[in-house]
Amino acid sequence: MIDFSNKSVFKLKQNSDFAEKVAPLLLDGEEVLDSFKSMRDGVVFTSKRIIALNVQGLTGSKKDFTSLPYKNIVAWSVETSGTFDIDSELEMYFSEVGKVRFEFSGKSRLVDISHYIARYAL
């Protein structure tokens, strides 16, 4: 599983093309809602879960996919960007897993992400 305490791995920017990397994992009827990418890693929000992808090794041929179902989220926190601090953060607490944190750079639609979580977790 991905080490979610390593902040440098997840400085994410919106990237709709990144969703293609997790397409083979999607279930019938599961829709991609949003996707974000850092240098090689990324996160895809679907209608059922959050899929985090950690590309490993020099060649990038080894990949770690972590599936985080919305139904296991017990609490979450959104910190939006400000005037001088343009980064925003999403912290989620999963039963059995603990805290998962993603940092977003630039203008990200964190309110939309919070709505995804609320719609599917509550």
Automatic annotation (TrEMBL):
Residues 13-120 form the Bacterial Pleckstrin homology domain. This is PH domain-containing protein. It comes from the Bacteria. Gene3D superfamilies: Bacterial Pleckstrin homology domain. It holds the Pfam family bPH_1.
